[in-house]
Hints:
The chain is of the alpha/beta class and 404 residues long. The protein has helices at 6-22, 30-37, 41-45, 51-65, 71-87, 100-108, 116-127, 156-163, 183-186, 207-219, 236-248, 265-282, 297-306, 328-334, 343-358, 367-374, 380-387, 393-402; strands at residues 95-98, 131-136, 171-177, 197-202, 223-228, 253-258, 285-290, 311-314. It has an 8-stranded parallel beta barrel, surrounded by 6 helices. Helix 1 packs across helix 2.
Amino acid sequence: MRKPNTALLEQIKAAAMELLREKEPSEIGMRDIAAKCGITAANIYHYYKNKDDLFADITTTDKSADNNDNNSVNNRKRYEMKDIKEMMNYRADIKVVDATLRDGGLVNEFYFADDFAKALYEANAKAGVDYMEFGYKADKTMFDVNKFGPSKFCDDDYIRSVVGDGERKVKVAVMADVGRCNYKEDIHDRSEAPIDLVRVATYLHQMPTAIDMIEDAHKKGYETSCNIMALSTGQENDIKAALDMAGRSPVDVIYIVDSYGSIYPEEMARVCDMFGEFAAKYNKKLGIHAHDNQKLAFANTIECAGDGVDFLDATYLSMGRGAGNCAMELLLGFLKNPKYNTFPVLEFIEKHMMPMKEKGIVWGYDLQYLLTGQFNQHPRTAIAYTQNKRKDITEYFKELTSQE
């Protein structure tokens, strides 16, 4: 907590105490307190990392002012018990998104066994997964169709060959990468396509095009998300400008994307606060897509789930670019919603994922990915290190640090 403006600090504490008399602490957000004060939530975050610190400060102040007044102490205890109680329950708003075909396809040029996609779809249905991302809508004038498997392009007929013509068991998602997708031509009206959700992947400097893609998909009838990549390299003002642009668009979900696997959970909590302010302002949902360079993808995903993020990305056995992603088997094992079932995931891993590993397809945590995560760098050099079967990790460390 920084050196306070005393008058403002007292105003914040008074508003929080008034709300505590009306509601349970777990029902109060920073934005509720800010609205009570007539200020922005950002003003409160200058002094407190989260509402836990604020309520703790109120408790401390009350105890020193009047040892006989246990009101705030009891409020604090109720708050802690409420948190524990919520951890034992589930949030019905959470949606799990399987990204195995898309992010995993970056490992093997999207060449999966013929029965892989259909078996994965069935496993997701049995496991209760909400969305399955089939891959990219890549521009065929930019990418040679003979060099990639079908999930690179996600033609409507390919998706139909997997999901069939009957009632859909799991919602279908595709990713449209800014600058690599002929979205006006290749993404057809939703009434003509077997797709439910179009996920627009963008870097901060590409936001104007991303907004155009979102508006195009929205007009065609799709659910949409804006996946803002490489957040760890962005300036806070640029991120906030991007969030404001996304908020003003018709997008349904705004995604936090830890592209380099470099964000730690305590930092992720602050990112959630920033994203949450705009989500609340514009009535948007939030999502999280985490990479596992420092073995924190699962930790960051459940950190976000605890901070009100609803859309949670995961992949089977963490399969994904480089170090991979949050593991589906970990995530479903953590979520308390009885609709989710881990056994079909384990069954699919045993029958389809382990054989890929045995054939030599490589992904997952390793020292080279750890280093790019720690140095907040794109993992392209670590991917090349892996593909070249290098073992000289200290030399690679020196190469990375010489770029600093």
